[in-house]
Amino acid sequence: MTPRERVLTAFAHEQPDQVPRWCGASAEFWAKAKRELALDDEALRVRVGDDFRRVYAEYAGPAFGLRRGEATCRTIFGVERTGLGYGQPLEHPLAGATIRQVHEYPWPDPAWMDVSKIRGQAMSFSGLWAILGGDWSPFWHDAIDLLGMENLYMKMYDEPELVDALMGHMVDYYAAVSERIFGAACGAIDIFFIGNDLGSQTGPLLGPGLFERFILPHLRRLIELGHAYGLKVQMHCCGGFRPLIGPLIDARLDALHAVQPCCAGMDLRALKADFGGRIVFNGAIDSHHVLLDGTPESVRRDVRKVLEVMMPGGGYVAGASHDTILEETPTENVLAMFDAVGEFGRYPAG
What we know:
The chain is of the alpha/beta class. The chain has helices at 3-11, 27-37, 41-48, 99-104, 118-123, 139-147, 149-158, 160-185, 208-228, 242-250, 268-275, 290-293, 296-310, 331-344, and strands at residues 52-54, 58-59, 73-74, 80-82, 88-89, 113-114, 130-133, 191-195, 232-236, 255-259, 280-285, 316-320.
């Protein structure tokens, strides 16, 4: 099988020739691995056996200068942030806003995202790999940035219409960008990949009631958009969010990435038994303890145990339990993980 055929077979809950592999890494780890192994980007993806490739639209809108000296980046919705990585917001622009002010906020124009190169990017991979595309659409995180997290929770009870308006404007933007991407790609994308972290180490960040009232309708809208273009839809979600998996399946989400077995409620045997026939699980190899603290030998043992649980019947993609493999993760442990998947993740022929 080609990598693309392998992935789409797993997404169909059938057994491919071997478990597909997914490699998500921080820019810092990726640069380190390329340096240590003397490989370029594509050669490194081939070395780890990554079955996916991803294409992106490019921002081509107006230039926005940072207003505050300590700011290091600015989100598409005008929130300035500072600190490690994407950092933390310096302010919450809509914290005290009325519904009218939410509607009047300077929301971005989807046309600011240049989609003209998307099809060419996808076609450059010659149909060999499964292609990820579409806007990441992290509207839950954006709502926290714009309102503040505690304030957002309070407004769900005190001003639900304001939260609805806020979410609606953000998802209007994200859906429009993704629709432009899918239209430009002309069938060259396989999987619509979105992301919203709704879990913590100890459980969901909001209960099923609030989730289904405020978040799920917008996720369903994005899922239906992907399906309208014939795409599978995969959502990244960190943490322990088991109580939300059933509603996500009911909304026809195809895949969840990246399963973190060290979080509350994310026992792999239980997840596979209860949901494995209805949703694809991507991840599940512990990046917190196993990859960071282990040795190649211990990583190899753990991968084999995970595969024994997750691979039967298809519906599983192997990778780290967090998409951003950290720079301090030993390169040899990451290679051991993917090599072990290649060795122990083979399905019986025929």
